[in-house]
Amino acid sequence: MSHTTATRSPVPTPPPEAPPARKGPPHTPPPSAALIGGGLAAAGAALLTGGLAAGALRDFLDRMAGVIALVALSAAVMLGLATALRGLLPPPVRSQAQRLHRAVGAVGVGALLTHIGVKVAGGRVDAAAAALGWDSGDALVGLGTLACHLFLLALATGIWRGIFARRRWIRPFRILHGASYAAWAAALVHGLTAGRPPAPWVVAAYTASAAAVAATLILRWTRSPT
Q1: pTM above the 0.90 mark?
Q2: Would you state the pLDDT for residue 111?
């Protein structure tokens, strides 16, 4: 007597679900109205700090706000370059560099606005010339205004990075956010040539910042995977 063994038909496996469409990096969502308002309030406070400072504080800001801004923004540019070194830095280090990039960039822009406020309040440059970049009578002052505009553009595109994350907007983001390179170069020339001659230690700080940014840029070009 033979027994037939019933064979079970294999249960069909459902097709894998398509991953949800990526709307932007989870760590860079579009900013809320409260964040935008807070940022505008902080920018206004930085301008007022420079404009309303008096006495020793004003003298200090008159001498140091621009130096702090350029050194901080140089560090922000360097850290931004470091975040793209995927083949050299592990992901946790790159994430930390990205957080520092944003924080140091915000400090640099705040110091830059304070620098502008104290110069306008001290009568060293007209408010319209500082804001628009012409009628200052000094091309080097206009170069500083251009640097400020480009840094603000880089800051704005960095804040809205989550919106640019879609593939078709990646290239425009890189171009607009990359304005920070031109801004940094213009700010470096402005800081070394506009106004009073810089002290030797200021020149040394600017030179060290330039060397660090150049070294990071070369490292990214030569060793980062394409």
Answers
A1: no
A2: 93
- Distance from CA of residue 57 to its chain's centroid? 27
- The pLDDT tens digits of the residues spanning 132-162 come to 776 666 788 888 888 999 999 888 888 887 6
Alpha helices in the chain (DSSP H): 33-52, 55-82, 91-121, 127-132, 139-159, 161-164, 170-177, 179-193, 200-223
Q: Coil, strand or helix: which one is 15?
A: coil
**Could you tell me if residue 123 is left (phi over 0), alpha (psi between -120 and 50 degrees) or otherwise beta?**
left
Q: 157-186: b or e for each residue (b if 16 or more CB lie within 10 Å)?
A: bbbbbbbbbeeeeeeebeebbebbbebbbb
Cα radius of gyration (the chain): 25
Q: What is the DSSP letter of 138?
A: -
Q: Which amino acid is at 216?
A: T
Secondary structure of residue 195 in the 3-state scheme:
coil
Q: For 51-84, how does the pLDDT look when each residue is reduced to its tens digit (9 = 90+)?
A: 888 889 999 999 899 999 999 998 998 888 888 7
Question: At CA 209, angle to CA 60 and CA 122, rounded to 5?
Answer: 25
**Cβ distance 20 to 88 under 8 Å?**
no
CA pair distance 172, 153, nearest whole angstrom: 12
Cα distance between the two ends of the chain: 70
